[in-house]
Amino acid sequence: MKAFLSTAALTASLALSAPVAMAEPETYVIDDEHFSMSFEVNHIGYAPVMGMFRDVEGKFGYDEETQQLTSGTLTFKSKSVFTNHDKRDGHLRNEDFLNSGKFPDITFEITNFETTGENTGIVTGDLTLLGKTRPV
């Protein structure tokens, strides 16, 4: 689960430019045809496995003039986990991992954006998984 949280946080990092003065941000809705959320975990401690969530929705605020991310929320449907292996996906959906029956949504709420370079930044936020919210 730690690997999942780390990967989710890393994947949520966005490439944006340095801030100038804040203008009025626009709100953008995630287009599911042009967006995917992937992760990588170690299988049995030695083999990396790539996966993704196929059903993700959300929106974010972005100021194009200052190139600042101002807000954002992503919701992943835990039942949409996909690793290209039906039996493993079923196991990930059950109570051992994502418990999709009890916790259908995984959410990420942006709490901060830090510019790290001309075209880079780090997004931090609160990830809610299995009913527990933690900063990532």
Explain what you see.
With 136 residues, the protein is mainly beta. The protein has a single domain, classed as Lipocalin. It is built from two helices and nine strands; from the N terminus they run αββββββαβββ. The protein has helices at 2-11, 86-93, and strands at residues 26-29, 37-43, 47-53, 56-63, 68-77, 81-82, 105-117, 120-129, 132-135. A six-stranded antiparallel sheet has the order 1-4-5-7-8-9, with no helix packed on it. The protein has a three-stranded antiparallel sheet with strand order 2-3-6. β2 and β3 (47-53) form a beta hairpin. The longest helix is centred in the N-terminal third of the chain and has 10 residues, at 2-11. The chain is elongated, with a radius of gyration of 16 Å. Residues 5-22 have low confidence and may be disordered.
The count of strands amounts to 9
Regarding CATH, which class? Mainly Beta
The major sheet is characterized as: 6 strands, antiparallel
| Helicity level | 10-25%
Strand content: over 45%
At the fold tier of CATH, the topology name is Lipocalin
CATH architecture assignment name? Beta Barrel
Question: How would you concisely characterize the structure shown here?
Answer:
Helix content is 13%, strand content 48%. The chain is mainly beta and 136 residues long. Strands 1-4-5-7-8-9 form a six-stranded antiparallel β-sheet, with no helix packed on it. A three-stranded antiparallel β-sheet has the order 2-3-6.
